[in-house]
Amino acid sequence: MTKYLIVAATAALAISTQAQAQDKGRHGGWDQDQTRAQAQQRADEFFQRLDLNHDGTVTRSEVDQVRAQMGSSDAGGSRADRMIARVFGDAQSVTLAQFEAQALARFDSQDLNHDGTVTAAEREQAREARKAQGN
Question: The whole model's pTM is what?
Answer without folding.
Answer: 0.68
